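This week, think about what follows.
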Amino acid sequence: MARVAIVGGGISGLAIGWELVSLGLPHEDLVVFEADAQAGGNMKTERTGSFVLETGPNGFLDNSPPTLDLVHRLGIEDRLLVSNESSAIRYLFCRGKLRKLPTGPGGMLFSGMLSLRGRLRVFMEPFVKKGGFKEESAFDFAARRIGKDAAATLVDAMVSGVFAGNARELELSAAFPKMAAMESEYGGLVRAMIGLAKKRKREAVGKVASSGEAGPAGPGGTLTSFKDGFDELSNELACRLGPSLKTGVRIMALEKRAPHGYRIIDERGETCFADAVILAGPALASSEIVDRLDPELSSVLGTIPTAAVTVVATAYKLKDVGRQPHGFGFLVPRGHGVRILGCLWTSSIWDGRAPDDHVLLRTMVGGAHDPAAIEIDDRGLMALVAEDLKKTMGLTAKPEEHWIFRHKKGIAQYTPGHTRRLERIEELLADHAGVFVSGSSYGGISVNHCIAQAPEIAGKVMRTIDSTANPAGDKPS
């Protein structure tokens, strides 16, 4: 009998497993199940010749202490790779051309992203009173504070870039809690930016006074990865877990075991027992697993949808493109005559991701606005990407190589009512001592969030098993 079982070997499950081992749980008392042949979930890197291709997330923002602490404890700080300075330059494709995102409110006036009326409406934001409602969507919030033009252009693109989502169908307080807090705490977005800038300045002065240098990250942090690809992090965690990690094992059901603990059944019908179980996979997968244990919990978990996304990486000879794109890339608001969600200029963002004489791009297709895109065949997908990169970047060169990564489960969508769903999930879990949920389906989709919640969950698990006697005669799985 394993004292603790984790279902899901993505970054969340791996981080929790490592935290449990760090707290003193023996490897033989832990089992981490991963359905795929390789752990890491969506955090996977493919290496083809001199190309390094991220199939999922690109990296993490270095302003999250828990992630940096994890990297430090794993002893892999020397593997960190900071994005190039040019990645601070970002674009939107709107009103027929690529337009550089302004770095401040003043730049918006001359950016050409919005109509004159739309720009003037943005500058009225400080005079807008608090309002909204509990389950207000990101679009409705933005339309109320900065106008419908800016909401449909700026916020729509931001939501597409972060969630591959529809701004009209995401609950602001769940998807973007910091934005909701800006209005709640400061009364408005401009007031919040001024207040936060003053706060950062005071903190920076304090750091200089105490350490002699300012912090390395700006307000939004610096995008950071690893020299050989982002999955260096998940691979290191998997290595540290060693025999506790079991890949290629799909869990199908979870049942209560008398007098305590749980029975875990895999697709081959084999059974494992544990005092505590962490469901660290997507909510939809966890919904199926807990159906026998608690039909209502299963039903609530099943209401958290995902948006399917396809990533298309394309490599070009530099001489065919003319020059290396300069910047992070661009996003596309819906309604501007382009189907792709956006394109990241990988070889501009990172050193060592492509040969110096090549350009490597990463284009995203699909999302909540375009769910049918996941079914487009490879030929049709490449034609779509070629057409839209021509429209947006003027790119006419044919790629020398291409790679396609389809994510049918995609990214969790925090639709209106998400906060209430999370509250109900917690209420239902209270009836099943020792069962926990974790991962991007719940309180945040970023790698930083998944890592940040791991110590807290591990602590709860350890307290649970410390209060449960291990049945005599049971053997670890």
